[in-house]
Amino acid sequence: xxxxxxxxxxxxxxxxxxxxxxxxxxxxxxxxxxxxxxxxxxxxxxxxxxxxxxxxxxxxxxxxxxxxxxxxxxxxxxxxxxxxxxxxxxxxxxxxxxxxxxxxxxxxxxxxxxxxxxxxxxxxxxxxxxxxxxxxxxxxxxxxxxxxxxxxxxxxxxxxxxxxxxxxxxxxxxxxxxxxxxxxxxxxxxxxxxxxxxxxxxxxxxxxxxxxxxxxxxxxxxxxxxxxxxxxxxxxxxxxxxxxxxxxxxxxxxxxxxxxxxxxxxxxxxxxxxxxxxxxxxxxxxxxxxxxxxxxxxxxxxxxxxxxxxxxxxxxxxxxxxxxxxxxxxxxxxxxxxxxxxxxxxxxxxxxxxxxxxxxxxxxxxxxxxxxxxxxxxxxxxxxxxxxxxxxxxxxxxxxxxxxxxxxxxxxxxxxxxxxxxxxx
Length: 425
Ligand code: S3P
Fold this sequence. Notes:
CATH topology of the largest domain: UDP-n-acetylglucosamine1-carboxyvinyl-transferase, Chain
CATH class of the largest domain: Alpha Beta
Number of strands: 25
Bound molecules: shikimate-3-phosphate
Oligomer: single chain
Shape: globular
CATH architecture of the largest domain: Alpha-beta prism
Number of domains: 2
Radius of gyration: 21 Å
Strand content: 25-35%
Structural class: alpha/beta
CATH superfamily of the largest domain: Enolpyruvate transferase domain
Largest sheet: 4 strands, mixed
Number of helices: 12
């Protein structure tokens, strides 16, 4: 994909459904009685991996252009898969389904693509084993493929060393099958979509500060789920609007859950002209339209409890920082190293190729903004968020930027390049 400089991005855009919420709707629908209808489901490769896994576990799922229908099997109705489950590139599928599979009466093995087979699964193997699960890394390296055998689970109180919704959710889902209450305490609150949606389906999940508790054996009932637009996809247009001269973009119906809205807070702290309009609520998830205008920006420090609320947006925030006067410091974000790619190394390498002033640190990046970016050939490393970040950087750089392996946007935003083009054509 070749990208050249653009000005004046104008218009209205609707981004696809939220990835985290789409995954959960399929999973919780599968474990419920009755039918769950999901509209605005994200038809990205990751969420299709979740559908494929649950079909293999005996769940009938209809996927049509209007909606997804999941004919739930109840908490104890999944059946053994003859084939190994394949979670593709999806960390959310791998970790959340492991929590569910730990509570089943049959054996499952699961694997994913080359990236998934390098990502740390010890973070779920440790707490699930503490609950009594029989789960192991088949190659003994703490990564997928995983083998999960039947075993009785008991409730624990787990103090998670990382603020990770995937870890938290895996434990809570195993907690559905435990013999008592299961609790997870996180260092900072991570995205709470599991908590909101499990309660919507009939579970009893409570949150006190950063401790989340779940009661076992609820009767989950199928629901109608309307998925809000994904703020992690909206983030590319938010940043594009702020840094591309003479731009004004209205992004409609975006999920603005406070555990996900760090990008908006950071952009405003950097001087970004952003208005939140038409605030609403769908199934307990707050939504709004976001109006963004080209702005004069200054650097900031991003650290601590805000990090989990913008973890997936840090690559595009690194691009944003290149267009802000002064220094932006990103700290406490070592999690970036274990995402679909090592996002600290990849952002630093690629932005350096474009002549940005950026340095990687152990847990983040330091960016001195205000230097003109120059087009370069950059590798996505098959990481969707890297590819999308460099499309926005390339539109604001001299010359041509070539993104190698740019098709990986399919993971979370299959129509990304077409939607972007609508704003300047
Ligand atoms: C997700 C949680 C986050 C995020 C990922 C989706 C989820 O991962 O990076 O894209 O749906 O729970 P961690 O919870 O591991 O930080």
